[in-house]
Amino acid sequence: MKLKDIYATSLSLLTDLYQLTMAYGYWKQGMAEQEAVFHLYFRKNPFKGGYTVAAGLAYAIDYLEQLRFQEEDLVYLASLKGSQQQPLFEPAFLDYLREMRFTCDVDAIPEGTVVFPNEPLVRVRGPLLQAQLIETPLLTIINFQTLIATKAARVADAAKGHKVSEFGMRRAQGIDGALAASRAAYIGGAATTSNVLAGKLFGIPLSGTHAHSWVQAFTTEQEAFRAYGEAFPFDSVFLVDTYNTLEGVKNAIATANELKQQGFKFNAIRLDSGDLTYLSVEARKLLDEAGYTDTNIVASNDLDEHIITSLRQEGSKVNIWGVGTQMVTACDQPALGGVYKLAALQQKNGDWTYKIKLSEQLAKTSTPGILQVRRFYTESGYLADMIFNEAETLPERIVIVDPVDSTRRKTIAAGSASKDLLEPVFVKGKLQYTPPTLPEIKAKAQQELSSLHESIRRYLNPHSYPAGLEESLHHFKIDLVLKLKEKGNSENGEELL
Ligand SMILES: Nc1ncnc2c1ncn2[C@@H]1O[C@H](COP(=O)(O)OP(=O)(O)OP(=O)(O)O)[C@@H](O)[C@H]1O
Ligand SMILES: O=P(O)(O)OC[C@H]1O[C@H](OP(=O)(O)OP(=O)(O)O)[C@H](O)[C@@H]1O
Ligand SMILES: O=C(O)c1cccnc1
After folding, report:
1. Which parts of the sequence belong to the Nicotinate phosphoribosyltransferase N-terminal domain (predicted)?
2. So what's the pLDDT on residue 490?
3. CB within 8 A of 250, min separation 6: which ones?
């Protein structure tokens, strides 16, 4: 298998084996077409933060649009054997998969939206077999991009309006990790990427400086700067720390002076080691004294939101931040714990049976229903989010209950402005949604983040945004949990309304 073949292959087998074994089981039981509702949501904001930025929907749409079992996929599935060397799947099931077309309804919260724990980012309604099959790919796409967009939003917030350049490809989790991270980091707040393929594929603006090896390749540092400056008279950034940082700044200034007559524009220097506050302050003095007051100072070296905050508080003169490893790998929390849970199943008579997954911890108990998220807001920002069952009538008086601590409640004044966050994306398998462009998604994320109170955006013990269950849904869920516990957990987690 060559790399190019990986990128050309059908993605229909990009799922866990158990999705296919369950699909086979549902098909054998005659349950394949039974209408089901699943929700994709996470339980905790990443990085001990107060918010999350949704991302990855455009990838998920592409995945769902191509979902169709190809002959090569079916040949592979036909080759799979069980422990007694018997075929894992019978041919008639593979014929079913061959004819299968995606026919689910998918509703999703648009990319760039600020979201909170327990809110369905994606709701899938359709034939049980199909809706189950797509669990793993939806999670792999949405979990990762949402995580990285959130990390990037935190980094950009720390930079307080300074440009953040994403430099992460070399440390990213493989090729797709690098590409998806560049996309998500751009959504979250990075202004540019160094990943040229991400520039080509997604239209993200590129930026870059040069490496230490460039300086090492010449006899002297000044020769290296001169050569680079001649090659890029308007776009050079000199990396000044290969030997001695402040001597490097002086060499950069001398080179800029030399090339001035040729119209050279002294864009920036980059610092990549040492005490970035001290060195940036000293570098700024040298640059200003030489008349280069507009020359920028880029810093890199394992930066994250906390180091950037600290450097800013220390009075650093850095005004462009190159951030790689920590942002694209989300080093301090390398996965978002998004899950995909069955919440309702339709009976033959058309009635819904609501489903629940119990857990010892209430926080991990899923929410039954056909859920929607309603966001209440005022002119000055977001007020609260309510998760409710769209299939039931809402009471007059709106009370939102924290899903983990039911003593925390918020009553919403009648007539408050609101919008529902889940939007139709696929209707009966047909795409009905025009995905916004990447710059539009990025702009939305910026606007959304600015609607959040500062106390929710802070890193340390952020205020928790009121996002919870509509009161009657909360009661329904708790009653169901209690009933199931009484039955000793041995019976199906379900309730007919
Ligand atoms: N003034 C500062 N305040 C807080 N953190 C800083 C400051 N200056 C640099 N840092 C951070 O401290 C860490 C320094 O790491 P380390 O000591 O490994 O780098 P270095 O020795 O300076 O450079 P390198 O190993 O890349 O040559 C980096 O994450 C850097 O961003
Ligand atoms: O530190 P990051 O946030 O990941 O930013 C990207 C890093 O990649 C480059 O150096 P590289 O890591 O190749 O070498 P270095 O560690 O010796 O600087 C660059 O000089 C940055 O330091
Ligand atoms: O352009 C840069 O300066 C760059 C790119 C990738 C990694 N580190 C730095």
Report:
1. 13-143
2. 53
3. 286
**Ligand 3 pocket, residues with Cβ under 6 angstroms:** 167, 194, 208-209, 300, 322, 324
Return the residue matching tokens 């030399």. 258
pLDDT digits (tens, 9 = 90+) for 273-327: 999 999 999 999 999 999 999 999 999 999 999 999 999 999 999 999 999 999 9
The 10s digit of each residue's pLDDT in 341-351 is 999 999 999 99
The pLDDT mean for the chain works out to 95
Domains of the chain: 1-25+68-101 (no CATH), 33-67+104-131+344-496 (3.20.140.10), 149-328 (3.20.20.70)
Q: How many residues does the chain have?
A: 497
Q: Is the pLDDT reported for residue 5 higher than 90?
A: no
CA dist 1 → 8, 71, 175, 178, 293 (Å): 11, 17, 16, 21, 54
> Could you identify the atom of ligand 1 that is nearest to the CA of residue 241?
27
- Band of residue 111 on the pLDDT scale cut at 50, 70, 90: very high
Q: Which ligand 3 atom minimizes the distance to the CA of 270?
A: 3
Closest ligand 2 atom to residue 325 Cα is: 4
Q: Phi first, then psi: what are they for 494, rounded to 5°?
A: -150, 160
DSSP 3-state of 309: helix
Token pair for 20? 């296919």
Gap between the Cα atoms of 433 and 78, Å rounded: 35
Question: C-alpha angle with apex 348: 347 to 351, nearest 5 degrees?
Answer: 45
What is the edge-to-edge ordering of all strands in the sheet holding 494-496? 430-431, 423-427, 105-108, 122-127, 35-41, 339-346, 352-355, 494-496
CA-nearest residue for atom 6, ligand 3, is 167
Q: Ligand 1: distance of its center to the CA of 428 in Å? A: 53
- Identify the residue whose C-alpha is closest to ligand 2 atom 6: 324
C-alpha of residue 167 to centroid of ligand 2, in Å? 8
Residue pLDDT, tens place only, 227-258: 999 999 999 999 999 999 999 999 999 999 99
pLDDT tens profile 161-170: 999 999 999 9
In the predicted model, what is the mean pLDDT of residues 180-200?
98
For residue 328, give the ligand nearest its CA. Answer: 2
Ligand 1, from 242, 281, 298, 301: best to mutate by most atoms within 8 Å of Cβ?
301
Task: Give the number of the atom of ligand 2 that is nearest the alpha carbon of residue 273.
Answer: 18
Whether the CB of 302 sits within 6 Å of ligand 2: yes
Tell me how far the alpha carbon of residue 308 lies from the centroid of ligand 3, in angstroms.
17
Model pLDDT, residue 496: 47
